[in-house]
Amino acid sequence: MEPLTLHFLHEQAGGRFTALGSREAVADYGDLEAEYRAAREAAVLHDASYRETLRITGEDRASFLHGMVTQDVKGLPVGTAAYTALITAKGAMVADARLLKREADLLLDTEPGLGAKVREFLEKYLISEDAELHEATGEWGLLRLLGPRTAEVLAAALGTASFEPLAANAARTVSLAGVEGVLVGSPAFEKHGVDLFVPRGALEPVWKALVQAGGAHGLKPLGFQALELLRVEAGVPRYGQDMVDTTIPLEANLTHAISYNKGCYIGQEVIARATFRGHMNRKLTGLLLGEVEAAPGAELRKGEKKVGWITSVVRSPAQGQRVALAYVHRDHLDPGTELTLAAGPSVKVAPLPFA
């Protein structure tokens, strides 16, 4: 397992560790409830440097990637980001990624364990273009700030009177603790969310500066378990948990990852046909479980017929009960629809995100 660059700092803060693929992450800091509450009421800082990064250079980098992903790359302004998916010719997902377009290169930010898979997929189609793929996980680290006091924490850390919030996928270069990094608006889990990309060798001074600046604003470190709570409550699917290599992006509600004006790309015909048809046979939705215990992979039934399966389960403080993400057949997606687990208990379909 590849340890976190800041392992010793997390250990000093009471961090307990887990594995995400072959990479280390902080599971929690000993008080999951306090971490969650800080995310909802103040601010939290999450070390997401377990994520993996690819860098693409060369004169044809934008046009090459444009034909490989679901998002518009050529039309994306320099200095901004976009969420995208890579899919096969049959429309099934290879991975999802966040694309950051910079003046001299493109960065692809992926889930842990997917960097090599994405690179292999891209290299298969890289023939005569002037583009080169570089493994860049060792170059970059990612820190995530969440919570309603995020702007105050950043203003204090940057030494400014205020911090103007970033729109989704807007990017801004900043200098923090003498280190140049890139802030990206990332409100998918929580509307105030901001991600900070910094050189991996500078993670320690930047982390310490943010912790010090956040002390007066209730900042707490956030582990992966609490992050998963926020993710599921927000109805955001995660590749490797709610999306796999048979998932079609539209099934996972990833319309925001798809450009319908960009022209051809790998798998475009499948997406176009499904969009024209107007529905998918199944879609990702929410489930209210009450006190029913269920695990990912559990079958969902309507009468004797299997109509879906569960992918993620958490106990939601906001809902006061267990909630889940699940794929459900399109005939049973109406909110309030009662389904049963194979073991017998009933659960209810709920819209995403959970209220």
Topology of this structure?
Blueprint: H1 7-12, E1 16-20, E2 23-28, H2 32-41, E3 43-47, E4 52-57, H3 61-66, E5 80-87, E6 93-101, E7 106-110, H4 115-125, E8 132-135, E9 140-146, H5 150-158, E10 171-176, E11 179-185, E12 194-199, H6 203-214, E13 219-221, H7 224-233, H8 268-277, E14 282-290, E15 299-302, E16 305-316, E17 321-329, E18 338-341, E19 346-350
What share of the residues lie within helices? 10-25%
Say what the CATH topology of the largest domain is: Gyrase A, domain 2
Low-pLDDT parts are none
Quaternary state of this entry equals single chain
Strand order, main sheet: write it out.
Answer: 10-11-12-9-3-13
Structural class: alpha+beta
| Main sheet attributes: strand count, strand direction, barrel closure | 6 strands, mixed
Gross morphology is globular
Round the mean pLDDT to the nearest integer and report it. Answer: 96
Organism: Hyalangium minutum
Keywords: Transit peptide
Pfam family, one: GCV_T_C
Protein name: Folate-dependent protein for Fe/S cluster synthesis/repair in oxidative stress
